[in-house]
Specification:
- The complex is a heterodimer of chains A (240) and B (219).
- Chain A has 240 residues and is an all-alpha fold.
- Chain A is 65% helix and 0% strand.
- Chain A has helices at residues 2-6, 31-53, 57-78, 85-99, 109-130, 140-143, 153-169, 173-184, 189-196, 200-219, 222-230.
- The N and C termini of chain A lie far apart (107 Å).
- By secondary structure, chain B is mostly helical.
- Chain B is built from 9 helices and no strands.
- The chains are: A mainly alpha (240), B mainly alpha (219).
């Protein structure tokens, strides 16, 4: 009998609790008194269960309430997640009720309770493992934003480059040079001035006018772009 | 769930269970219940005895391997019944499930040795296929009521591993049926015979493990 009770003492425990969930005293010298207290507690539980088998509802209520912290402690030691411990407690209470005829008062109560709790904890963890995890949003898959490139993105980019190249090509020579060197190729004013032979002030004015003309040309409705680009009178002021 | 709601939920369940409490008759010990089932199986065997050829049985039991195979089947039936009843009670060691292994080894080993007689002894009387089919039908037919009685008795307990308990019950019923088959098996065993017997026993164990497991997993 004593062996059966002590069989659970090498189990992983919570701080301040033993394998059966009872509060323990930290001092090693108190181990003997803790063991005898546990034995007395086991005997009290066994006595209550024997009375419950005979139909004593008050003893049964007391027994089940005393079992609550024990069951919760055992479930946590078994690895049940905190949010599932209550479900295990309720499963165990129902199993105790169904299995109460199988308890033999000549044997210790806590191993009987521990066997039920461990099995119900395992059952609960198995059920949780089988359940799909992300089913809370049924349209999550459809609503998920695809962060990759859209199917026509490459075509659109090539179209934009073609339209821009045509608009730039339609600019007057000075403005075209300013856009190509300063904006597209990101050269400095000095480099561009040396390459084109224009002054830095003229390059700035030409770039300003070119951007204004491009904004007017490219900012219009796509169907009008070609027309705007092909009308020489709307190219803007001549370059300097 | 908050602590208050949790406590209230548990208290509600405790009050509900305690409120509907009825006295229960304590179950007898697993060994006693196993003995009761063995007595029932023995009763079935005695009821079948008037239809058996006892003289042939006596002759066959003079052969060592047949005698050991029959003894192994009987011991397997008893050991598996004890194991099934033990595992149906919470808190009993699951190592009880290993109890039928040794007698099952004797049963299977002696039956396997019996198969060799077909080749070793020229004058042996091996079973024909239609006779073997009759043996399998006998195994399945006798196993059914034995399984039903056993599962019905086990349902009164609370098996925490219902499939294991039910499979042990199936082994017990199949072994008992095989033991009861001995007086009605007037020919020597062959490999085909043994294989079909094993198939019948496997069917009984599998059916018990599946159907019995569901029956025992009530509540």
């Amino acid at each position: 009998m004593a062996c059966a009770v002590t069989a659970g003492l090498d189990r992983p425990t919570l701080p301040g609790r033993d394998a059966f969930g009872w509060a323990t005293v930290a001092r090693p010298s108190a181990a003997a008194s803790g063991f005898s207290a546990r034995m007395r507690r086991d005997e009290a539980l066994a006595s209550d269960m024997a009375a419950a088998q005979a139909g004593d509802a008050e003893a049964y209520r007391r027994l089940l309430r005393d079992c609550l912290p024990v069951i919760a402690g055992l479930a946590r030691a078994q690895g049940v997640r905190a949010d599932a411990v209550d479900d295990v407690v309720q499963d165990v209470l129902l199993t105790i009720h169904r299995a109460r005829a199988t308890y033999d008062p000549a044997r210790p109560f806590l191993p009987w309770l521990r066997a039920i709790t461990q099995r119900r904890a395992i059952d609960r963890m198995r059920r949780a493992g089988r359940r799909p995890r992300e089913v809370h949003d049924p349209i999550a898959y459809e609503a998920e934003v695809d962060r990759g490139p859209a199917p026509g993105q490459g075509l659109e980019a090539r179209d934009r480059e073609r339209v821009l190249a045509r608009a730039v090509a339609a600019l007057p020579e000075g403005q075209r040079q300013a856009v190509e060197h300063l904006a597209l190729q990101e050269r400095s004013l000095d480099e561009t001035a040396a390459l084109t032979g224009r002054t830095k002030g003229a390059l700035k004015v030409n770039l300003h006018r070119a951007l204004k003309a491009l904004r007017r040309t490219l900012g219009a409705d796509p169907t009008d772009r070609d027309e705007a680009a092909s009308r020489p009178g709307e190219r803007g002021p001549h370059d300097v | 769930m908050s602590d208050t709601a949790r406590t209230s939920s548990h208290d509600h369940l405790v009050d509900s269970l305690a409120g509907g409490l009825r006295p229960v008759r304590r179950l007898p010990g697993p060994a006693f219940r196993a003995l009761a089932w063995c007595a029932a199986a023995t009763g079935l065997g005695l009821a079948l005895m008037p239809f058996a050829d006892l003289e042939a049985l006596r002759t066959r039991m003079a052969v060592a391997d047949l005698r050991y195979a029959a003894l192994g089947a009987v011991l397997t039936a008893v050991a598996a019944a004890v194991a099934a009843f033990q595992t149906s009670v919470p808190g009993r060691a699951s190592a009880w499930a290993l109890l039928p292994l040794a007698p099952a080894a004797l049963w299977i080993g002696a039956s396997g040795v019996g198969c060799l007689r077909d080749w070793a002894v020229p004058g042996a009387d091996p079973a024909h296929l239609h006779q073997t089919g009759g043996c399998v039908a006998f195994l399945l037919t006798v196993s059914l009521p034995l399984s039903l009685v056993l599962v019905g008795m086990l349902r009164r307990a609370c098996p925490l591993r219902p499939n294991l308990t039910a499979a042990l019950a199936g082994l017990s019923a199949a072994a008992a049926a095989a033991a009861l088959l001995v007086p009605f098996h007037p020919h020597d065993a062959t490999a085909t015979d043994l294989l079909l017997h094993a198939l019948g026993v496997g069917l009984v164990i599998g059916a018990n493990g599946l159907a019995g497991g569901r029956l025992l997993r009530r509540g």
